[in-house]
Amino acid sequence: MHDFVVIGGGIVRLSTARALLRRRPSSRLLVLEKEPRKTETYARDSVSRAKAYNR
Q1: Which residues are 4's β-sheet partners?
Q2: 29: which strand partners?
Q3: Sequence spans of domains, the chain
Q4: How far apart are CA 20 and CA 3, in angstroms?
Q5: How crowded is residue 40: how many other Cβ atoms within 10 Å of its Cβ?
Q6: Among residues 17, 40, 41, which one has the least CA distance to residue 30?
Q7: First vs last Cα of the chain: how many Å apart?
Q8: Is the separation of the CB atoms in 1 and 28 below 8 Å?
């Protein structure tokens, strides 16, 4: 049993997961990600999308 489940391993969701664990260090958290491994290209694309969204 988990206290929190975060779906997706992008930068925003991982930041959210980290914040949850900082707020409740004894909680159990599960991060679900469909990709076996994130690449540098994926990370750059995520940042580009975030910048475009925030304009």
Answers
A1: 29
A2: 4
A3: 4-53
A4: 10
A5: 7
A6: 17
A7: 39
A8: yes
Tokens of 31: 């991060």
Contact predicate 19/51, CB 8 Å: no
Give the global pTM. 0.61
Q: Is residue 34 within 8 Å of residue 9, measured between CB atoms?
A: no
pLDDT tens for 5-42 read 999 888 888 889 999 999 999 999 999 988 776 655 55
Beta strands (DSSP E) in 1-55 are 4-7, 29-32
DSSP for residue 36: S
Structure tokens at 43: 């990370």
